[in-house]
Amino acid sequence: MALGAELRRLGKHSAIYGLGGLVSRILAVLLLPLYTRYLSPSDYGKVETLIALTTVIGIVLRMGIHAAFFRFYFDSSAPEHRRLVLRTSFWFTMAMATAGLAAGLILSGTIAELLFGSPDDSELVMASFVGLWAGMNYEQLTSLFRVEERSGAFVTASLANILLTIGATLLLVVALDQGPIGVIVGNFTGTLLVYAALIGYRREQLGLQFDRSLLREMNRFGVPLIPTALFLWVTNFSDRLFLVRLADTTEVGLYSVGVRIASAMVLLLTAFRLAWPAFAYSIEDEREARRTYAYVLTYLVLLTTWVATGLALLSPWIVDWIAAPAFAESSRVVGPLAFAAVAFGAYIVVVIGVGRARRTQFNWVVTGAAAAVNVVLNLILIPRYGMMGAAVATIAAYATMFVGMAWWAQRIYPVPYQWRRVLTAAAVGVALVVTGKLLDSGFAVAFLLALAYPVALVPFGFYLPAERKAIAARLRPAR
């Protein structure tokens, strides 16, 4: 398949995933007034704590099987091979999720006492582990839509899950006044119902088949990714914990608003991340795969840098539009956090080479080094610079992760990445942001600078002759 067709295929699926992600985020925001009205801050804190706990436990229980499923599914196009990979992954996930559920139910009182100082919340803990079981199994089964590149079906299942979750939550929290347990049960009700429907839909593909030797190979690929995922979690969330301890809650509040605005980048990257593994592994020809990966990195950095540049330049007005005047300082961290997401997006691209070569054993070293950079810089910078120190620590951590993974991936799976163009795309964005901040000339100038990003690349020779020709053809008026 031609490169242009491959990139259009990736773009189409990313756009569909992005639409589903956009709807889910809007609905999640709409639920916030419900939570804050019917839950006390303490109850909401318990819910968030249990979500964080089960997220970490889920990373451990999965043992990387989710990532291994994508890699091994494309080893062969034979239906019997793909069915075996599916069934082995399905039953392994079911067994680990059930073991986690059993442990959570048995130890619920102990866990509640350790977290909240009293065993009275053991029912909340039990409900959270039911949610963990549902989430792990649901994720494994919906991954089949992703390897089949049926992004529309994936988004349909996701939206059905969201709508059922909202309905169940409204019933339990508002009508039945079940408080925090209503939120947790409501959150997994939709997942369970859609999962049950998917079991029926996939009944011919599922069966009592399990290959231990295949599982050993998949675990050899996936287990090294457990610390990788845990270190990523540390890099993503530790900054707020450090701000609470080393600064104050005001800094946390200001920083959190900046994080929310920069999360526009997260939506973009989540859509790409959902489409990318299946797309990347589905390219059978190694030469074509390497060439495609190179262009994907260039274009992803181009697109994400443009978005980051716009967010950084327009952040003062965005904050002014969506937040109270007391949160005006939040705009200072939007730029660094948005450009940190650019580095994370680049990491998502280059790490695929490690997966293709099945050499994941070193991944945790790279993400561990990034987490260490994040922790050390948070400790050094937050006491002096507050939330800006946390933002700098975040961008340094993600830059470390990208550079480290690019170095490692190139050693074991060389790809002709267009490094000059990648660096040019990022540097021009940063230069425009610096220019806009120095000029400080109002919204119109900031908006024009953000809009001018693609044009600003021209003097630096970013565009290839074929790209210039294609752009000129699109800009030429139709006759």
Tell me the domain tally: 2
Task: Estimate percent helicity.
Answer: over 70%
Instruction: Note poorly predicted spans.
Output: none
Shape: globular
> What is the rounded Rg?
23 Å
In short:
The chain is built from 19 helices and no strands.
Task: Outline the secondary-structure elements.
Elements: H1 3-38, H2 41-62, H3 65-73, H4 79-106, H5 108-116, H6 122-147, H7 151-175, H8 179-201, H9 212-222, H10 225-246, H11 249-282, H12 286-322, H13 331-357, H14 363-385, H15 387-412, H16 419-439, H17 443-451, H18 453-456, H19 465-475
3D architecture notes:
- This protein is mostly helical and 479 residues long.
- The chain folds into 2 domains: 222 residues, no CATH class; 232 residues, no CATH class.
- Helix content is 84%, strand content 0%.
- The chain is built from 19 helices and no strands.
- Helix 11 runs parallel beside helix 13 and helix 13 packs parallel to helix 15.
- The radius of gyration is 23 Å and the shape is globular.
- It starts with a helix and ends with a helix.
- The model has no long low-confidence stretch (mean pLDDT 85).
Identify the notable features of this structure and list them briefly.
single chain, 479 residues, mainly alpha, 19 helices, globular
